[in-house]
Design a protein that fits this description.
Chain lengths: 516, 529
Amino acid sequence: MKRSRFKGLLFGLVAMTSLLSCQGQPVDDSEPSVPIDQIDKGNIAFTSDDIINSSFGGLGVEWGAYENTDKLIENGWEKIIDHMDHLGPARIRLMINYDWFCQNFDDKGDDDKTNDTWTYNFSNKYATNMFDILDYCQVHGIDVAYGCWNVIGDLKNDVWNMMEEVTSDIRWARISADVLDYLVHQKGYSCIKWFVSSNEPNWLGYEGSSKNFKNTYEKWEQGIKNVRKALDDIGLTNIGIIGGDTTGYAGTDEYFTNIANNIPDLVADYGAHLYLSNYDVDRGNMLTEVRGMVKKIKKLDSEAGKSRPFEIWEAGFLDGKTILDSQTAITACSYGVRMTDYTIQCLAAGLDGVVYWDFDDAMHFMYTNNGAVPKEWGMFSSLAEASAAKQELRPWYHSSSLLCHLIKKGNKIYSPLQNNTELDDTFRCIGTVNPDGTQGGFVAINAAYRKTTKTFYMDDTVSGDKLYIYIFNENSYRLDEEGYITPNYVIDGSLNKKITLEFAPSTAIFVSNTRL
Amino acid sequence: MRKHILLFGTLGLAISAFSLTGCGKKGKSDTYDKDGNLIINLRNLYFSDYTGGGEYLKRLEKKFQVSLTFENYQDENWQAQVTSQIKGGDLPDVFHSNVTNYNFVNTYKKWAKENVTKALPEDLSKWPHLKHVLDNTTNIDALKVNGRLYGIPIAKNTSDFSIKFSQFTYLYRRDWAKKWGVYQENDEYTWPQFEALLDKFVQNLDVNKNQYALGDVEWGFPSITNFYKDVPHCYAYDSVQDKYVCNYTTDEYISGLMASKEFSDKGRYYPSQNTLNTGDMRKEFIQGRIGVFYENISYANYWAIREGIKDRFKGNITTEDLDDCTAIMKVRGPDGKYAIEGIDNWYSMTLFDKKISDTKLEKVLDILDWLLDEEGTKLAVYGIEGYDYLEDPVTHEIELIPESWYDSNGNPIDKKNGANYVRYLVTLGNDTLSINPSTDWHISNYLDDWEAEMKEAYANNELRIFKERDEVMWLDTSLKSLYSETMRDGANTAAMQYTYGAIDLDTFKASFGYPWGDVLSEINSALGK
């Protein structure tokens, strides 16, 4: 369906068609078609024909099982939970290692993998922590993408012999089904919605240091077939398998194309990890790239972007990444501004979910000859060894919290025609409203090095007579006494009335009819 | 905003654009991605954590219609990884090897002769910037096999090929020296002052906490010999006899070795160098357990040491305090002179898998040549015009855009500029350190100042550069090629044993029997001595 902004004659009809044809699914089918010179740069109206997703999947964060809970600060878990409460994600990605749970492996002394046996031990600190996370998600209605990082076994002593076949090894599907059977059927974690059949399968790593070194798309596809059947056989038909979980544009393109051609019905989505240059986001390249990717796959799979949405399962930045797999930029407010921009571009391209990498520095470690070094990508650190500054909430926690609370699961997403890099490569915005029109607002970003002024207006009815305005840049964002973000302004007003905002350089502004 | 002017006048070249595609025929191994880009696999130690991606690389790839894949080597077993891939027959298209004079015959030349690596084209005039670098590489002729060059020595600095000495020297705890009253102005120490400082450190440090006055990087022990010996390793020239002799039994080396033992006996030296793995002594220094540390203080190493100390203090350390923890020490030996090991302007090489096509090889050369050119250097160093920098169209003055280079806390952003990483295939980038906005100016300035002082000292005959003569260093004879590396390793082991009192001097001297005599005879014969 072509979108049109020739309002006088076609507006009503086009808007009606949008809503009728695309309920409950992402609705974008095409590039914006209005000539650039007819787009009003300064006045932005979020109208029904801007709806790009009529029921958004949700934003979230990687909350992986902690590799060593002994390292947490005193009362660390309460602090973690408090921070999760205030973040308010709709989804998380929870990755574990099967090595933590599988024991007593017996290959029966032969090469036949079908007769191998092992047992499961869910009585250790890894499992306890995993249950803590799942308990929280179950109670709070948070959707979980649950998965295992990579195949079981030790690189130096690979007694399982899984690294040749990787996830196509028949035991991968057996273990996956056993673990999910236990978690869903026995433990009752219905919050688990997806299964991640290994992390970043297209990233092979280095021989001798990566379990994934011998992987191929074909092996991964066979693994998906095996896992799908294994889950179906035990009645877990409602758990979808992430389609890809790949990293980077090139690898993602390869996997998405193959999935669309070969096994579209076996996956629940098209899921990727994207770690981008600042430039990619600051100048809107991401929007163009992701739109292109979505468009291409939609041509191959008619359900792509509909029942099989596009989603980001690890969102992060390349610039600032260190050799020990940490991110130096996370301490700055500009990281939050960029991540907000990243999110806007994903949603404007029609993606159904974004999961940030990651929640807490304490979750993952780089294991070096000098000991375990925390991978610092988080919104804070709950590590006892971390400095007080690192234990504080970082600015991007606050911007992510605003995004999670504004753009809720099930909301409509509006992407106006101004999201066009040819028109302006430094300004983007999206609007959002919940199904009954009681909660909504918009977030806009000025990635330019200069000020800009824009006027906004939501055409669809949104209730409320107050507006909560959050200005997010280094100089402006405000925290309350508990250290959580609070609005800069609370004014009488309505989203259905025009509001003019002046944006400082590198600034995100959130406007909501509810306190976020 | 910091302003820079790019100067490319040093090349003295007026280079016109030339075709970057369609050079030569396709080889059997050429593969192209779905968009028709030639896939080229690169593996290099200096890629560090960079695994590809980003806008800068994308622009480079688009310009040359290539798809580049990146893989690094782990520092600890770099050569083992190279050798493993060669044995396994699964070399990447472009790889990186340590090619010092001690292994070049057994590695570089052997690989060339055994068709492991591919020679560069004889005529390099199509790549004038690259040719300029190669033409100015010291001892380049030694690297030619049957008149052909089988790779690109990675230049430390492509704007100044005259550097004669290494950056192997001492860092020290100036704060301790000040605290214990042995600090000398401008960090300059005479030999007695150096000894006094070490003794004061010994007096105040606690061996029960594994604290020691002096530690050497694993390959540099015992650094005290530097102030005595004439050559770094095996082959010393005896002017009286007009022939090459075993360096380790010369009077000069023995004097240095005895001094080292004295240092050890007095508790100045870290007591168990023999137990260390690569990088361990650096960790000891970072952890505050070593007072004076002999190391290669390249920009990257110096940066890593300072970052390590920052991490140790969880960032709670001022720049001034950090400077005091990592000051560069200038020590004059017993002869009153500084002593630094001499080097060439390169030590590792970018090599090419024999199996790659001429097309692929030439494509890589196209890319590298462009990255040495003004336009390519701008992409690699500054980034994207209008986003990372602005350029005055008349004066060509570059103005950096701070929002792109610094985060909102004012800290520099470590950009993953793929073009810059590819540039490491031909130069370490020391030539662009001074104009690279990502450079840590503290480190760069300290190193520049130290280098300038040492150059001045050299000019005033106050610096002794010790280096093997070129004629013997790159001499390719069968026994020398076969034994040099093991001879050197054996000598270092014996030196360590003597220093720590495990063997006496006679035993040390006696360890230089076979094959030393045969190798030296062969060398002297080959050189007409």
